[in-house]
Amino acid sequence: MPQISSDTSRATDPRDMRASLATKLHAAATTSLPALARDLLELWHLLSLDAPSVAAVWTVFFAASLRQHLSPSAPVSMFLAVWMLYVADRLLDTRQLIAPASGPIDTAAVDAVHAGLEARHYFHHRHRRRLLVLLGVCAVALAVCLRRLDLTTVRLDLVLGSLLFAYFVLIHATGSAHRMPKEISVGVFFSAAVSIPAVALAPAAGLQILPLAILFAGLCSLNCLYIYRWEHLRPAASSRTAGPEPHPLTRAAVRALLPSAAGLMGISILLSAALHQPAMLAVASSAALLALLDQGRGQLSPLTLRAAADLVLLTPLPLLWLHRAA
Question: What's the rounded mean pLDDT across residues 119-137?
């Protein structure tokens, strides 16, 4: 989440552009099954399909937890909106990598940009023209989907979208991202967004879904915090140009990730039993998988680890399958 490469791990020089999509797909088609699965997982991440997939699945899951049936337009519009947001965010993160048509290049500024970039950013920079075209296509598709949603959902989405747009401008226009606990803010926005369609269908059940929404917000923040530690506190990152200092809350939370994951698991299990809401077990499962990923992070490349961090948030899929089979 959180957060629109020959070997897909980090190159020695972060300025090197990652392999083209066609080359990546060709390599995946000629590798063994485990390598193919890894390459497809990394492509899923590089193409910014991970966060939209998580958003779409949890949108359906929130509604299913209230025994409500969403129209296909709701998860599809969620997928498109989140994909557009993440792609735009990553393209804006790399805008200073585009060389000016004339005049000197501010190498210090470019070095500072490189300090905060990962494989997904370089991938988006390399394919920015194609992605800009896809953004336009998705905007039209999103407009069509929004016309099919009920008016309450659209109104709530507009309110949340306005707040998110203000936050987006604050980050990219003022350069003050480091002054806000971004990893925590993302969890709140993400949870609010995916719960809106369910609440719009059953406003009276809003309090019923609130505990799950709070737990999911905590899970999304935990996901972002683990990713922050993996990408910014690994040994390879120490040799790079220092980026902005993290928010004090982020710094404190990163020091207590394992207790936080254990606490989230415990609270989710206890509330699931007390409130008779098995949906909360999906939060507990994802928190446990994030902690396991962290323990085995040395066995995975940075890119595979980053993609897997979002993959483990898809724990509602088995529960949705059981719900449909019931």
Answer: 94
